[in-house]
Write a structure and sequence with these properties.
This protein is an all-alpha fold and 185 residues long. It has ten helices and no strands.
């Protein structure tokens, strides 16, 4: 395969997945610029090793797996060499408005950030990126039932966290408040 055929074939496979790749990178990285960098690095790496791919049907899983590994490698380096305080960095006032983040999307990303990594990753890959359960299994490893379980648990936790009527119930002493005062007297 010559270079121009390689480029054309790669772009044909990549183009329908660009938005999904960016959304996945955005889920992993809290900063939009870091997400763009992750997506760009992923595309470059995938293009460089595109000749080695045997099956074009696994391109989607390959693309997302490369993104995941690049993110993990970056975080491993940050753990080894120290990291900056992301909370402070995110609170630095910006002179530019960010039109790509509406309030709802911001709330969703903040809520997603509270989920365990594997659950967050599974639900984003399935719901937002449109990957099949088998493709998610190839990326995350484990069994198909564990992938289904992660997605189910993530959905339940998201529903619970995003429910505006999230009342705290007294599970230890489920007594009406007037009865409680009578009992304690």
């Amino acid at each position: 395969m010559n270079e121009s055929d390689k480029k054309e074939k790669f772009l044909d496979l990549l183009e329908p997945l660009l938005d999904k790749l960016y959304m996945y990178a955005r889920m992993l990285e809290k900063n939009p610029q870091d997400a763009e960098d992750l997506a760009a690095d992923t595309i470059l790496t995938c293009f460089e090793s595109f000749d080695k791919m045997r099956n074009e049907n696994s391109f989607k899983a390959f693309l997302f797996k490369v993104a995941r590994n690049k993110f993990r490698r970056k975080n491993r380096k940050a753990w080894l060499f120290g990291s900056y305080n992301e909370e402070k960095a995110l609170n630095i006032p910006s002179n530019e408005a960010q039109p790509d983040l509406s309030y709802d999307v911001g709330v969703l990303y903040k809520t997603l950030a509270k989920l365990p990594l594997k659950q967050k990753e599974a639900v984003v890959l399935f719901e937002i990126s449109g990957l099949s359960l088998k493709e998610i299994q190839d990326i995350q490893g484990g069994t198909l039932s564990s992938v289904k379980s992660r997605i189910k648990r993530a959905r339940e936790k998201l529903t619970e966290m995003m429910n505006p009527v999230n009342e705290k119930k007294d599970l230890i002493n489920p007594v009406i408040s007037t009865e409680r005062t009578l009992i304690s007297v």
